[in-house]
């Protein structure tokens, strides 16, 4: 349905028949990331809007259903129960997984792929997660785990601080 598709077109603007036809013809790739690491990234990108990570988390928790896309639960954004994704790639393993996806899709291996340093990214976010998690109150930790409960159930984040 290319005549109705433009960069600003939302999937909800199509009828069910059109959506099914499109979903059946595309290779669907979902990029996932530990929800706590997404929060850290959003906080670092919005430095200055909140005086501390703890107050930022409180703002996120208070936003509830009106959460910003940067920290909204993935399940509510990507609908993994409704859409059968062909590939699910996890942040922190992108170099390996993206290389596999590019080979499977018959696309050229770009030199940018060589610049991914997953080990460094995982170590940095592990350290940041530990530091920032320690700033949160027990109630904030529990509320975050509840806020992201569907993401934690749907995707394998075994080392997430919110899984504990």
Automatic annotation (TrEMBL):
The keyword Iron-sulfur is annotated on this UniProt entry: no
Protein name: Carbohydrate sulfotransferase
PANTHER family xref list: CARBOHYDRATE SULFOTRANSFERASE (PTHR12137)
Gene source species: Rhynochetos jubatus (kagu)
Pfam families from the UniProt entry: Sulfotransfer_2
UniProt entry tagged with the keyword ATP-binding: no
GO BP, sorted A to Z: carbohydrate biosynthetic process; dermatan sulfate proteoglycan metabolic process
Coiled coil: none
GO cellular component: Golgi membrane
EC numbers on record: 2.8.2.-
UniProt-annotated location(s): Golgi apparatus membrane
MF (Gene Ontology): sulfotransferase activity
Classification via InterPro entries: Carb_sulfotrans_8-10, Sulfotransferase
Family classification: Belongs to the sulfotransferase 2 family.
